[in-house]
Amino acid sequence: MSTEANQLDIVIREMTPTDIERVCEIDHLSFTLPWPRNSFYFEIEKNDASRSWVAENPDQQIVGMLVTWLIVDELHIATLATDPAYRQHRIGLRLMVHALCTAAQAGAQKSFLEVRRSNLAAQNLYTKLGYQIDGVRLRYYEDNHEDALLMSLQTIDSSRLKALI
Ligand SMILES: CC(C)(COP(=O)(O)OP(=O)(O)OC[C@H]1O[C@@H](n2cnc3c(N)ncnc32)[C@H](O)[C@@H]1OP(=O)(O)O)[C@@H](O)C(=O)NCCC(=O)NCCS
Asked: Which of 1, 79, 84, 153 could form a disulfide with 111 if both were Cys (CB 3.0 to 4.6 A apart)?
């Protein structure tokens, strides 16, 4: 569906405390259980395992965000969202490829995440990146008791990932 032609220009950079207000805005627009503001602050300032990223458009407006945790050789995807007004321009894909390739340089070999069973957009994105479904956490989400699918990327292959963007 997306093509090179409708890829917006974006820059991906590390999240900083001054980004939190806008990151929370995107989080609230994207999730029924958004994170408390302090959680983003914790990730940026206190959590050594955290690698948190934002995507900025040419007007320097943040249009996507991604929080990951690098734990030994595993990259855990903690949260990912694209501003609804900017979806389907491969921003989520490019954030994920950037995070995975950067983590691979730092020693990550595998990646893990959880996704709602009903969230087909995200599942398609992860499948495109090479993740597969490994298991289910039944009734995992507090708001509607929806199941979480556990997905893993068994080998982070940077060349293959970069070829996707
Ligand atoms: C999931 C999400 C991050 C995708 O972000 P995005 O920037 O719109 O996605 P991309 O444009 O990078 O899409 C990449 C691939 O994902 C899949 N995808 C994305 N949106 C989709 C949709 N609405 N329906 C079906 N597949 C979709 C497609 O396979 C797409 O590949 P294509 O460009 O070749 O079609 C975005 O929909 C979002 O923020 N959702 C709400 C928050 C959320 O669910 N986060 C993930 C929690 S696990």
From this structure: 153
